[in-house]
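Quick one, tokens below:
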């Protein structure tokens, strides 16, 4: 076997990659799979390391990614399939993964990204990474300005969330970590009306004027926002449903509302 191929799971680069995958390195993210790697490269993510197996070189798209990265990543790690399996976060590894710098965004950066009539999504205490990623995907698709993920929300740059977002994580402006109160106060200071999703609300989501600068707040999957949290916002809207249906998946509910906002704004 070629001596340049990494055959040990205990290789230092491999061990570091697993730490990144598991969220133990605060400034990097683990990106896996041909499509997601393509999205990261095309979005100008700062790639810090690359891992791939020999068989993946026969894939035209993967080979093109590696060719594009050859100028910025000096020494891509070629690993055995066994070693790659130890890295992978999926059941059926494709054979290519990379590490990249996490985007950093604080309140000031978020403010600088605002457009004239912003539409912000605030994700509060969601614990399902796939749902969180799907909301990012819907937010970008509907033309949202950016996303705020409050403290206690699933990591939007974990492997599962990245797969759910399918590239939107690399392009949206994302501010992670503020308390809900601080996020809502920030919105108030910047002229954004804050509106929560609440099944008990009197007004439906189509009755709200989404052409105004606003922030849409979604809460945790199981119980939703508490009464105290709802009281912090300017209002609430509901999605009407037949009585036999208790609730919608949070990502689906967010998409329904965001696309109503896009319809009213004629933004698509």
């Amino acid at each position: 076997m070629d001596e340049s191929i990494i055959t040990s799971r205990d290789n230092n680069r491999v061990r570091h990659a697993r730490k990144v995958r598991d969220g133990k390195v605060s400034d990097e993210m683990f990106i896996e799979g041909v499509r997601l790697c393509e999205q990261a490269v095309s979005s100008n993510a700062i790639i810090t390391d690359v891992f791939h197996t020999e068989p993946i070189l026969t894939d035209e798209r993967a080979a093109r990614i590696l060719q594009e990265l050859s100028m910025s990543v000096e020494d891509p790690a070629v690993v055995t399939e066994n070693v790659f399996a130890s890295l992978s976060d999926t059941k059926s590894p494709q054979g290519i993964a990379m590490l990249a710098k996490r985007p950093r965004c604080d309140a000031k950066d978020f403010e600088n990204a605002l457009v004239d009539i912003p539409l912000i999504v605030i994700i509060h205490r969601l614990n399902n990474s796939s749902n969180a990623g799907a909301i990012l995907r819907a937010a970008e698709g509907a033309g949202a300005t950016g996303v705020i993920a409050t403290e206690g929300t699933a990591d939007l740059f974990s492997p599962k969330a990245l797969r759910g977002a399918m590239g939107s994580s690399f392009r949206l402006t994302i501010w992670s970590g503020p308390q809900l109160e601080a996020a809502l106060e920030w919105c108030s200071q910047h002229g954004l009306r804050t509106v929560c999703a609440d099944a008990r609300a009197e007004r439906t989501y189509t009755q709200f004027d989404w052409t105004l600068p606003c922030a849409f707040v979604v809460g945790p999957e199981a119980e939703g926002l508490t009464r105290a949290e709802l009281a912090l916002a300017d209002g609430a809207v509901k999605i009407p449903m037949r009585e036999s249906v208790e609730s919608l998946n949070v990502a689906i509910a967010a998409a329904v509302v965001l696309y109503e906002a896009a319809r009213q704004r004629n933004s698509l």
